[in-house]
From TrEMBL:
<dbReference type="InterPro" id="IPR050854">
    <property type="entry name" value="LMBD1_LysCbl_Transport"/>
</dbReference>
<keyword id="KW-0458">Lysosome</keyword>
<feature type="transmembrane region" description="Helical">
    <location>
        <begin position="12"/>
        <end position="32"/>
    </location>
</feature>
<feature type="transmembrane region" description="Helical">
    <location>
        <begin position="305"/>
        <end position="324"/>
    </location>
</feature>
<feature type="transmembrane region" description="Helical">
    <location>
        <begin position="189"/>
        <end position="213"/>
    </location>
</feature>
<keyword id="KW-0812">Transmembrane</keyword>
<keyword id="KW-0472">Membrane</keyword>
<feature type="transmembrane region" description="Helical">
    <location>
        <begin position="98"/>
        <end position="122"/>
    </location>
</feature>
<dbReference type="Pfam" id="PF04791">
    <property type="entry name" value="LMBR1"/>
</dbReference>
<feature type="transmembrane region" description="Helical">
    <location>
        <begin position="366"/>
        <end position="396"/>
    </location>
</feature>
<feature type="transmembrane region" description="Helical">
    <location>
        <begin position="408"/>
        <end position="428"/>
    </location>
</feature>
<comment type="similarity">
    <text>Belongs to the LIMR family. LMBRD1 subfamily.</text>
</comment>
<dbReference type="InterPro" id="IPR006876">
    <property type="entry name" value="LMBR1-like_membr_prot"/>
</dbReference>
<feature type="transmembrane region" description="Helical">
    <location>
        <begin position="44"/>
        <end position="65"/>
    </location>
</feature>
<feature type="transmembrane region" description="Helical">
    <location>
        <begin position="142"/>
        <end position="164"/>
    </location>
</feature>
<dbReference type="GO" id="GO:0031419">
    <property type="term" value="F:cobalamin binding"/>
</dbReference>
<protein>
    <recommendedName>
        <fullName>Lysosomal cobalamin transport escort protein LMBD1</fullName>
    </recommendedName>
</protein>
Amino acid sequence: VKMAAAASDLLTGWCLFGLALLAILVFCWVYVRKYQSRRESEVISTITAIFALAVALISSALLPVDIFLVSYMKNQNGTFKDWADANVSRQIEDTVLYGYYTLYSIILFCVFLWIPFVYFYYEEKEEDDGNTCSQVKTALKYTLGFVTVCAVLLLIGAFVPLNIPNKKNSTEWEKVKLLFEEFGSSHGLTALSFSISSLTVIGMLAAITYTAYGMSALPLNLIKGTTSAAYERLENTEDIEEVEQHLLRIKSKCRDGRPLSSRDRRTVQQLEERLRTLRRRERHLESIEKSWWTKFCEAIRPLKIVWGVFFIIVALLFTVSLFLSNLDKALHSAGFDSGFIILGTNLTNPLNMLLPVLQTVFPLDYILITTIVMYFIFTSMAGIRNMGIWFFWIRLYKIRRGKTRPQALLFLCMILLLIVLHTSYMIYSLAPQYVMYGSQKYLVQVRFNTFLKKNKSKLTFLPFVFLSDQCIVTRTYLFLHKFWFFSAAYYFGNWAFIAVFLIGLIVSCCKGKKSVIEGEVDEDDSDMSDDELPVYYR
């Protein structure tokens, strides 16, 4: 009966995971369709963006399932349940591990092959509308560079030694043989972990750039609101009249037949471009002022303020939890050589206390983790939309609702994919005990940090084997902490994340209200872009 009940609970967990998959697919479709250009939309780029974003979200959705399964194998007193023998627990661990293998392999395929190929294909398509075969060849040529980088990362991860032999008289052949033995024993786990960790570091940089700023910009924009469409339209009308008068003054100089100077001609050209932009703004403002969506947004303005206050409280809670977690590592970890790893908590962390409690009532922790991931997605999108996509000091693309080009959409989804990859480590930083062991309890309490410091020279950066008889570690932890130098990079990245968030908070507080058509009208837009107004603004 107990085994049947356990099987029923596990089946329920997997059913909820299936529902989460369906919800993720629907969300990705709506999300991509919302931002893609109506005039330049392409089927392949749309499918690629939806698929890449869905895979990233599914990999993050597997995290609470992994934690639930390892926690469900043990009773509250620390003993294993009757059905959770060695074979059953091993089968469950292998199932989750193979799930990560599959998802992370697909992520590597998307990042290093599929997305680059589609991107370069459409870049060539814009430059050369002729032969499709030549476009494919050119795209494959550029994509080969990404494939080479992926192969190098896999080779480095496969043969980097985690256990260095202490024998001074060992030959080079023995060292090479050891590398191949390690590769065979890990079944490719080390190679995949190294590649994914490399992408996670890039995702960390994207999170520092976009998510940290978006966490401050999104709630404050909700609280401040936007300027009135009627007020902006009045100011815009005054600007149109001023530009028209300036144009008349310059053109009056050539009434007697004298040609305009080169300086005046340049000024006239600039003023005419400015006038076209102002008239496009006039059309957009007029549509927005009369739309039912604007009236609806004005009606729910108090609700937006409540959401803004809630989001800023959540952002401050994340920041405080991240600060306390990093401070705990700085004061009580085994040091830089172990990647600032710490088993057990010495400083109270709100989220680290909350998640193990919610984990005992499935699926409350699943809902909270999903909320955290979606929060990171929305704040990242807010940061990307406010800043655009940059390559150092060069602005590559703008992200605008209903006007995003296919190439920008692919860039957007790749950035979000990398940020979601980093989200797993962010959750570990916020709640390390939860991510490692869930709600498992031990029969014997051990001073983890004392053990680490005494055996620091013997660490292979897998300290959980010391407690292999007492607990089951999540498969996520295997991928997150295979290499100490990546964890050290994440540690310093968390400090940078906190600093950028505080700077973004100050900047967002000092900025005024956003325009009601912020980012909708730019000087480089064509007049045809007016046809791309969202349906609810018409």
